[in-house]
Amino acid sequence: MMARKLALITYNVKPGVPLEEYAEYTRTVDYPIFRQNPGIQNYANYVVKRNARGEEWFKHFDLVFVDDLDAFHADGALHFGDPTILEHAAGWREKWGSDPETGWRSAVNITLAEEIWG
Prior knowledge:
The protein is an alpha+beta fold. It has helices spanning 19-35, 69-73, 83-95; strands at residues 5-11, 40-47, 60-66, 98-99, 104-105, 109-114.
């Protein structure tokens, strides 16, 4: 067994979006698009239900287990440079990650990590 490689994506969705609506989008649109890439071993979205101690700046995060962190990074293109995922990510930003009326825009942080294996 080898150490797992993870891309952690942290973000918020536009204020006022019903969680059920976002969850349905995640299941029907987001999951199939990310999971079609052969370099992605596992992809799942999470929503923070409550803070037990302290508070993070984000309420949503994705765990993306990949076969190769350098390939995922794709010299800064991210998501393996996969045009299907990159187009989807731009559409996500427009639909869920920004609000032109208020000027709100979510930070979307991507952290690459490797499991301490053993």
